[in-house]
Amino acid sequence: GALVLVSTEHDELWIPRTHITTLSMLPPIGRQEPSFELPTLAESEYFGETETIRSVRFIRDHLYVVTFKKTDPLFSFDLTDVTAPRLMSALEITGFSAYLHDLPGDLLLGVGYDADDQGDFAWAQGIQISLFDLRNPAVPIVITQEVRGQRGSFLPAAMDAHAFSFEPSRQRVAVPMSIFSDERGLVSGAAIMKISNRRLVDE
Q1: Using 50, 70 and 90 to split pLDDT, how confident is the model at 18?
Q2: Could you give the maximum distance between any two Cα atoms of the chain, in Å?
Q3: How far is it, in rounded angstroms, from Cα 100 to Cα 158?
Q4: Contact (CB, 8 A) for 190 and 176
Q5: What is d(CA 63, CA 137) in angstroms, rounded to the nearest whole number?
Q6: pTM assigned to the model
Q7: Do 17 and 48 form a contact (C-beta atoms < 8 A)?
Q8: Looking at residue 185, what is its pLDDT?
Q9: Phi (first) and psi of residue 190, to 5 degrees
Q10: C-beta neighbour count of 2 within 10 angstroms
């Protein structure tokens, strides 16, 4: 076993172009000699350059990490060998997932925000709901992706993982959100969706 740490480094001025993210494998507590340095079993190559971490999900011996600046790379890691974590793929889609949750049938749900590319950065837009197929962990596939609302919408799960619910017995997901539109302004509630034929269907 090992402790897995995913971290983004930056310079003291927080200049985006210097952002680099690394996955580090640390030995279990109590199995190393006292030291002022953090012992490391192994580290991955740098990934997500110029971007920052937005969400992470562990599923068995695999790790999925989302970083973001203008697009959402979903990085997939194989952690089978704790001395050699392996980056398998990076799936790029628009926007980003601020919270990831694994679902039955090798599915991964991502909720976050769509994004509008502004050149050196991107503005967050409406709430984005993405469903990924992980039957081949090395090659995640986007099954569906939809956006609800406009810029000004708010997703509590982006800041609090408790603002999300999955009911296994009914295969149902509940995601609280506040949707903004020019027509109705800000409307708060929850998206209630059910897994059906490897899709999310509104209830």
Answers
A1: low
A2: 63
A3: 10
A4: yes
A5: 9
A6: 0.85
A7: no
A8: 96
A9: -145, 140
A10: 17
Distance of CA 96 to the CA centre of its chain: 7
Cα(75)–Cα(55) distance, integer angstroms: 11
Residues 70, 2: Cα–Cα separation, whole Å: 32
Pair of tokens at residue 39? 């012992």
Residue length of the chain: 203
Contacts (Cβ under 8 Å, ≥6 apart) of 122: 69, 70, 71, 115, 116
The CA distance from 153 to 50, in Å, is 26
Point out which residues pair with 9 in neighbouring strands: 20
How distant is the alpha carbon of residue 13 from its chain centre?
26
Q: Which of 26-35, 74-83, 97-106, 109-118 has the highest mean pLDDT?
A: 97-106
Residue with tokens 């976050």: 112
Reduced to 3 states (helix: H, G, I; strand: E, B; else coil), residue 72 is strand
Q: How many CB atoms lie within 10 A of CB 112?
A: 24
Query: How crowded is the C-beta side of 123, counted as CA atoms within 13 Å?
Result: 8
Report which residue type is found at 78.
D
* Cα dihedral 67, 135, 202, 111 in deg (nearest 10): -10
